[in-house]
Amino acid sequence: MADAILEKVHDLSDVELAALICLITKENCIIDTEPGSINDLVEELELVAAKVFGLSHAVIDCTEYTTLDDFAHTILSVDSSPTLSVSPLRSQSESYFLRSPGFRSITRSPQSENFDDNKSIANVIIAKNLDEAPKQVQIQALELIRTKRIYTRISVNNAPKTFLLIAVLAGGEGPRLTKHLNEYMFISHFHDPEDGFPNLEEMYDDGHSISSVVRKGPKLETEAALQPRISSAEIEHLSRLSDVAVISIEVKRYQQDVVAFLRLHRAVSSGITAIATQHFDKLMKCLAPLHGLSYATPSLVGLAARKIYLHRIHIVTPNRERSLQWGSDVETVAALLEGIGPEEVIEDVLGSSGAEVPL
User: Which Gene3D superfamilies match (predicted)?
Assistant: First the structure.
């Protein structure tokens, strides 16, 4: 079974792999892309949820006008069979995207109205532009991923056992969500539009976005009938392998050295939090079975660091850089920090001038 799963894993795209890692670890993630490709990325993630993992999903397009009620009601889906609730090719009238700043209600199909008392939180929540939502909405998202429940005016809804919240952001690096929500996001990944959107390209011969393509009835039935490429049993199997993966003393020491070097790096402001270190350890163990290993290696430490810390590192402003306490010149410090972002800090720590890699 393990070999069969690994073959499937090796065929996954970068976005599919990011989602799989979060499902294995039962955590949540940020996926970033270029501003002009964010709609295609959202549509790709819808197809990933339905076709690759067979999970229900809901999409919310956040704006500065999004309210708590908007967020709560949008992530609820009808508790019915997967072919009814998870189809990635729902008609435009059933779309959960917010159409305008004045959005206050969600268009539902007649079937949805008939099952108004039988709603549940979707397995996968795709939150487009979550960083643009008001602070109270982001706090509600944080409560959802921490407590696995959400409160509406009339009920309390519990998240399903398999649950994933994906914050889809566009253009930028470093922290953009509220402080605590950002810390609880397990990994971050940048999807380059040049890498393509394989599920969209497979679905439509001309490779255009779903929103620009007329849907055809026969094709909808064919797609809805497809079985997920990776089943819940396979995800659970990978999760058990992750739990028993071994981290040797030497690799553990290297991991802690990486954390220490990040905390002491002159370009890093606000340090590195304890929950980030916990996530670092969890991702290292998760990556081992995905590479056919029962133990973590130094290379997996580097790979995990790039995904764990990219959205967490705050770059210090020149007037707050610590060497100023000992007489450094602000203009000189500003010149040294120019062009340095979270990615450059991580590569510096993992490079020859950073933590020593165990042999």
Answer: Magnesium chelatase subunit I, C-Terminal domain
